[in-house]
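Anyone able to model this chain together with zinc ion?
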Amino acid sequence: MPLSPHTNVFAGNPLDRAADRRLDADWLAGRLDDPNSSAVAVWNGQLLLGPETQSPRRLALIPASLARGVAGGEEHLLFLGLTPEGEAMFAVDIDGAADPAEGPLRGLGAFGELRANVARMAIEDAAISATAKAVFEWRRRHRYCSNCGQPSEVAEAGWKRICPACKGEHFPRTDPVVIMLPACGDRCLLGRAARFPPGWYSCLAGFMEPGESIEEACARELMEESGLKALSVRYHSAQPWPYPSSLMIGLIAEVAEGEATPDETELESVRWFTRAETLALLAGELEGLGCPPPFAVAHQLIKAWAEGG
Ligand SMILES: [Zn+2]
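re: yes, here you go
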């Protein structure tokens, strides 16, 4: 039985993370040698994928021993966990300008952007990809100790960094973002940022700040971005968002009657939609207007409210 009524894309990772194995160097070395072990290959943030014609398009897994060879050291390896069959899965992070699919990984797949492919990927593969991508992106951005500035070293199979100078320990970041749909009676409010595709409207969102509860962050963002007052806040679902390390916390907020005014530093306009208009927007039937696609939690929040959830 699912843990939540709705599982967003990038959640639902089927692997057992087997965190208790991350410190067991002998076991990890054995799994890297095991011909049944596999690995996800990441090159400059892109994933090694199967043929374009696949439906759904799958990750092109490579042998773990090959991943170890390409990685050239622990710094570029990550133990992702155990598959439902009990086999180990790793990930390898490859840098450099030369496409490995034209080199050591020739014939095994082609590298592609996760965001461009996610709509047609299996949900399990999207979640595994998001995990690997987020950890490697953190590694890339946190090579130096944030306490003393010395280079840090990878530990615990890729899930931690330790500073040899000050012994500081550093863990992959997850930055919580509240993303909310404000609703008032039969209407909901959507906002439009200048960076959106033409005609697009979406939910409002913002990073949580230290010392805030989820509900308080939601109420603050609503007031800042639209001038609306939250009366109650309901959790819907969350979405790991590996660009680079956010966790989108999806909420539906009942707001007081009032005039909505956009915070023009973040939004160029806000607009009320009736339930009927919202259903048409989701179906792509509102002339000149659009909203994020189904793989985005924003779409799922709008859909849940429009369908009366
Ligand atoms: Zn340090």
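The chain has three domains: 19-138, 142-172, 175-306.
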